[in-house]
Amino acid sequence: MPEFKTLVGRTAPRQGSQVRTALILAGAGSALTTLESDLKGAGAHVLGASNCEQLVQDSMRLKPDVVVVFEPAIPAGLFAATALLESTHPVAVVVFTDDVRVETMGQALASGIHGWVVRGYSSERLRAELQLAQLRFAREKLQRDALIKLSSQLEERKLVDRAKGILMNTANMPEDQAFRVLRAAAMEGKERVGQVALRLIDAARNAEAINRAGQLRMLSQRLVKLHLLAALGVERHGAVALQRASVDRLVENLSVLADLVSTATFGDLLDACLAAWHALEPALAAAGRGHRLPDGLDELDRAAEQLLEAAERLTSALESAGPIARIQVVNVSGRQRMLSQRYAKFALLLSAADSPMDSASLLPRMAATRQEFDGAMTFLRQSPLTTAKAQAGLAAADLSWAIVHGAADASPLPHWRLAIARASEELLDIFDQLTERYEHSLQVLVGQ
Prior knowledge:
The chain is α/β, with parallel strands linked by helices.
């Protein structure tokens, strides 16, 4: 189409709000020339001519005020082109045609066409048709913008209500106080309340995911510890019952994490935890059938260590991706649960005469675990998120921890195994509560 080559790419500066620019879509020959001449007479500057395949691209490049289509018989790709144009680069579209079918009119309206003139083209009416199409386009834009704004406000209200619910449940505050907290955070950060609400929801979700992933670490060590207690005859029935409860807790956490974490971002890390559990489960069952301590213990502990490593990677990744810098405290507190169970496991192995592991391999690992635990206690005591209640919890943890490593130092005496068992469970309870308190703190949720 030679006319297309001569027309496309012409540009001219606007000369005020009365000047309108147009992009033509018409058949070749006299129709194109006539339409261009009439548009100029109507006060519109013609930017170029296009076709169905290039309409969106040309419109985005030339940015016309109106697209004028002159096609007696509607081309097959017109409605697809105008629909794509409406969704990507909305502009007023006027069609002059001989097509009188109602079905075609319906397609025209659905595809974003604002003027549909059947057998009524005239140069005298052209300017009015263009102006009417532009008015319809402007009206639709106002309605569309209002709908988007209303939808955004409704969505923001839902977010605020959800964020208030989180604060009411976790911080035990009434609804009006929860809203004041959100509003104060918004004013301090010069944000909308909805933005703060969304960040709080994301932070709560991330904190819960970190807590639950951290529990997988702890459970990997607790299951081995409980197996050792049962095999050594230390509160055997209670140990077996706690082991079953630990398995249920582990499976529940894996299920909840599947809903909490992004599959695209963390799916491979969660899959590694699942694979490690699928290896640990049969090893746990096999070790439970043995009557002597060494039966299946090596395989059980190796499988537990694989779950520990997989859970550690997942927890660290979740912490790094968290929206709040202070989310680290949730991970550190949660990790104390694992370290307490790990240390107790080593101490029980050291106390057993028929242990498959000797003291030369156990003692360095115990020392490293104790050092990590003590270092984390210092971090938690100094954290600005540690309230007076949390400090009291840490003081109670100090007492239980002293019993555990004091009993471990006296490990040749079998009666100290019971002290290790009970004090390590006390530590687990203490750090479960502390981690939940950190998870639900306003500083973590709101970022204050």
